[in-house]
Amino acid sequence: MSKKKDFPEEDFAEFTSEINENLDSLRTSTDQFFKKKLILFCIRWTFTLFLLYIFIDSYSWVKWLMYLAIPLGIINLGLIIVGRKKLNEKLSDTEDKINSL
User: Fold this and answer.
1) Fewest Cβ atoms closer than 10 Å to its Cβ: which of 16, 71, 97, 100?
2) Is residue 19 assigned to a domain?
3) Is 75 within a domain?
4) How far apart are CA 88 and CA 82, in angstroms?
């Protein structure tokens, strides 16, 4: 018995190229999103560290605030970097699966 295809080969090629274009645009938009998040992170932490520097001697609780805020900032930065890497890996895996069809 011959195996019957669901749709013609040219339609399939057009479909996969369209999906690859969508994946490329998705990859570009996620890179822009994470770049924006990284810039906002830098601005926010510059402002925060400036305020901490001004008020470090004024209030005793500011030192305790630093012990809480700095690890949270490091976690936030890590999530931005790791999230971008993981998302790009998922997009590459999806693209590889589509191209292997």
Assistant:
1) 100
2) yes
3) yes
4) 10
